[in-house]
Specification:
By secondary structure, this protein is α/β, with parallel strands linked by helices. Helix content is 38%, strand content 20%. It has nine helices and 13 strands. A hairpin with a 6-residue loop joins β8 and β9. The longest helix has 27 residues. It is globular, with a radius of gyration of 19 Å. The structure holds zinc ion (ZN). Zinc ion binds next to loops.
Length: 323
C-alpha cells in the first residue's frame, strides 16, 4: 500500500460497516454505540420518547429506530440534537418528532453554515451518509434555548435536563442529563476512546470551564459522541480527562510552534507526534487532526469565530498537512 492510500482523504477510505450495540442503561434509557461511529440514544417518558441525535441520513436513522422499536413503540415527541454537525442532524426527518430541540447557537450555525457543513461532512465521511438522497434538506429546530431546557418525563421518571456548559466542540453544544439515573449524554463534548474533532471548536473554553461543568454534573454513566459507554464514576472522569488531555496537548504543541513563529505544518507534525502514542490508533485520529490543528492555529491567531469548512477548503488543508 502506498502512503497516499494509507492516508485517503479524511474517512473516505473507511468503508467498513461497524458493529452496533444497543445498551439499556437504566429502565427506559437506551444508548447505541458503534465502534467509534457517532453514538445515539433515547429516553422513555410515560407515553412518549426523547431521541438524542439523528444520524446522517433518514435511512441511517431508520436502522437505529428499528432497533429501538424492539424495546418500545412510543412516539418520538422530542428529538434533541447536541450540535449542528451534519452526521448528527440530517437524519432528523425519520423520527417524525413533534419538537426538535437545540441550543440557540445551533440554529444560528445551521443558518450560517449548514449547507457547507453538509457538503464537507459528506466528503469526509461518505459511509455514514447511507442513501444520501433520502435527506430532505437542512434540519431546523422547533425550539431552542440558551442555558437549560427541562423535559418532565411523567410518572416517577423524573426530568430530562438539557444543559449548555459553555463553548466547546462547537459554539452551541448541549448535554442531556437524567438526574434520576445519573446518566449523561454528552454529545461530542466528551469522547471515550475516540479522537476529538475540534475543527469548529473553542479549545481554551472547552478544555477549562466547559469540561469542568460537564464533570461537575457527576454522571455515573456517560455516553460520549463516539466510543463505548463509560460505566461508573471512575470511567466517566477518565473519559472527561482524556478529552481534556487531547485538548491541552494540542494547546501546548500548537501554541509552542505558533509562539516561535513556525508554520502550520510544523504545528501539525509536533501535535501528531505528541498525541500519537495515546490517541493515534483510535477512530478518526488521522481524519480529524489536520482540521483540528488548522482551527486551533486560527484561534491562536485571534480568529474567534471558526471559519466555515467547505469541501474545497477541506481538500486544501488535507493536501497541505496530510499530503
Ligand atoms: Zn460534532
Amino acid at each position: 500500500m502506498s502512503a497516499a492510500e494509507a492516508k485517503a482523504f479524511a474517512s473516505s477510505g473507511d468503508m467498513e460497516e461497524k458493529v452496533e450495540t444497543l445498551e439499556v442503561l437504566a429502565d427506559g434509557v437506551y444508548a447505541l454505540t458503534a465502534e467509534g461511529d457517532p453514538n445515539v440514544g433515547a429516553i422513555e417518558g410515560e407515553d412518549f420518547l426523547v431521541a438524542f441525535e439523528a444520524r446522517a441520513t433518514p435511512v441511517a436513522a431508520r436502522d437505529w429506530l428499528a432497533k429501538l422499536r424492539e424495546h418500545t413503540d412510543k412516539p418520538v415527541k422530542y428529538l434533541v440534537l447536541s450540535h449542528y454537525h451534519a452526521v448528527r442532524v440530517l437524519g432528523a426527518s425519520a423520527f417524525e418528532a413533534e419538537v426538535i430541540v437545540t441550543h440557540d447557537m445551533t440554529r444560528t450555525l445551521i443558518a450560517e453554515r449548514g449547507q457547507q457543513d453538509w457538503e464537507s461532512e459528506y466528503g469526509r465521511m461518505p459511509r455514514l451518509f447511507r442513501e444520501p438522497d433520502s435527506i430532505p434538506g437542512l434540519t431546523w429546530p422547533d425550539a431552542t434555548f440558551s442555558d437549560r431546557f427541562t423535559v418532565p418525563l411523567g410518572g416517577s421518571r423524573g426530568d430530562l435536563v438539557l444543559q449548555y456548559c459553555g463553548r466547546g466542540h462547537t459554539a452551541g453544544d448541549i448535554v442531556a442529563w437524567l438526574p434520576e439515573h445519573r446518566v449523561l449524554f454528552a454529545g461530542d463534548l466528551v469522547e471515550a476512546q475516540a479522537a476529538l474533532y475540534t475543527g469548529d471548536a473553542f479549545h481554551r473554553d472547552w478544555s477549562t470551564g466547559t469540561l469542568d461543568r460537564v464533570k461537575a454534573i457527576g454522571a455515573e454513566q456517560l455516553i460520549g459522541g463516539r466510543g463505548p459507554v463509560a460505566q461508573g464514576r471512575e470511567a466517566v472522569d477518565a473519559a472527561i480527562e482524556q478529552t481534556r488531555r487531547f485538548l491541552t496537548t494540542m494547546l501546548s504543541e500548537v501554541g509552542a510552534v505558533h509562539e516561535r513563529g513556525g508554520t502550520l505544518k510544523e504545528a501539525f507534525e509536533a501535535t501528531h507526534a505528541a498525541l500519537y502514542d495515546d490517541f493515534g490508533r483510535w477512530p478518526i485520529f488521522e481524519h480529524c487532526l489536520p482540521f483540528d490543528v488548522s482551527r486551533l492555529w486560527d484561534e491562536l491567531d485571534g480568529i474567534d469565530w471558526p471559519r466555515i469548512w467547505t469541501a474545497e477548503r477541506d481538500r486544501q488543508v488535507w493536501a497541505e498537512l496530510q499530503g
